[in-house]
Amino acid sequence: MVQKSNISELHAERLNFQPVLPNVLKKGVANIKPVLGKPTKSVADFDKVKSIFENTYGMPVVSFQAGKNAVVAKKAIKVGVVLSGGQAPGGHNVIYGLLEGLKSANKQNKLYGFLGGPSGILDNKTMEITDKVIELYKNTGGFDLIQSGRTKIESSEQFAQAKANILKNKMDALVFVGGDDSNTNAALLAEYFKKEKVNVNVIGVPKTIDGDLKNEYIEASFGFDTATKIYSELVGNICRDINSARKYWHFVRLMGRSASHITLEVGFKTQPNVVLIGEEVLAKKMTLGQIIDQIADVVVKRAKLGKNFGILLVPEGLIEFIPEMKELISNLNDLLAEHEVHLKTLQNVEDEFKFILSKLPKHLSALMSSLPIDIACQLMLDRDPHGNVQVSLIETEKLLIEMVSKKLEALKKAKKYSGKFSTINHFFGYEGRCGVPSNFDANYTFALGYNAAALVLNGMSGYLSSVKNLTKKSQDWQCGGIPLTMMMNIERRKGKEKPVIQKALVKLNGEPFKAFAKQRKEWSLSDCYMFPGPIQYFGPASVTDITTKTLQYEQNGKK
Ligand code: FBP
Predict the structure, then answer these.
(1) 235 Cα to the center of ligand 1, angstroms
(2) Cβ(482)–Cβ(218) below 8 Å
(3) Annotated catalytic, 172?
(4) Is 0.90 topped by the overall pTM?
(5) Most-buried pick from 108, 179, 469, 508 (CB within 10 A)?
(6) Total number of domains in the chain
């Protein structure tokens, strides 16, 4: 727990920062009314999704407008909140906003945090969140107040256990703060409670630094703004080092498990020489060999200009976008799930490796054997509880360095290259997930939490808190909710078809990618690096409150 004795100067200043609520929420939850839109559909696989979510499919989009609301303040309620999945800057402000929103309707409303993520619901570990508890966590990074976890509530026993504990606590609602997988869990719980006629509403809040939980109504997931600003500071610092020393090629892998939004945003802010975008690799069906050729081409061209230095950004999820690797990973996912028990009996990684090779189709076993052994072993590591490969553990930047070096050696032999290729590798991921939230994320998360309280108090369930119009001042943001089922499709997880929220990938016909495609040639050869420096919390709004380039391109078109 944070105590008065471990508060830094910045922390103390941030405790005094008062997040600015959207005007519509300012007068409190008892002074806003929900306006219902048209019924909705899932993004794909309508019939399958509908058959799983019989009670919560097709609900309308909700928007809030000013107006007296007599319903919400009537009886005092008890709400549980859980932080789920990877940390993202601003989580504490969601809790802070939720508490303020609940209290704005009725001072007797109570908020409880489930400890350690969804497992806290199953183990019934809770703590009450009071004004005093939240006092030292306002506008701070991290999830340390109640911690997080990746436990998935999926078996019928777990659903029954969740129900039993929530009823034991006499809770009226549960707020799930999470990414696509966690909010899928929230949707399943909302459906389960409706089916079981349990009067508990479930509301989701869009969190993930990866930025891949978004659509027309969820313009950004919280944490993306702060995390990309932190990575941009680090990458910008490396760019300045490159310009000063002029002797290394830096290969930087950035977090972003499935989508390349983080890499694209950091690319905009720092203008490195090579930026790989997984979605483009997939669309062009590029092989690993072609990616290596593309990188080597830039290295050779720069060497000819006397520049044996540079910087490359690669999203951690790249590996899953390369068609041949995607096929390999998908086969590995199924094999690891199918032979889970047998694999546990094997003595060491080599035996596991041999066993897996023997089960793979010939062409994939050849591909697996051609990879550096470390990478091949990393591909076999345990999947997360949702069945995803843990790409944060796969050192793709080292794989690229090794393969580009080999390519350059061959070019040297053929007298087509005579430069020097000294490399340094980096992975920036965990550094950005618990940073002190930017002003944008501090305001956004406070609004998302407050808005979630409004959804709960209006009896909504199976909804995701939606705050939009985000490139405008926070006073002008619009609030409401969208049904979680609207974002669902069916995907293969752990060898089975499952309903999941569809990830929002980088769109190649979207304004951000188009803007990048126009600029990248210039970035590759002329050194136009940018050095954004650290996040600023105080000073002119043009520096402190500005959000991501991605959102600006998305909302303002060509800029
Ligand atoms: P969420 O989608 O749960 O927010 O997590 C995102 C992320 O930070 C990814 O960028 C990264 O690959 C992953 O979490 C790492 O997971 P872990 O925290 O389990 O190591």
Answers:
(1) 20
(2) yes
(3) no
(4) yes
(5) 179
(6) 2
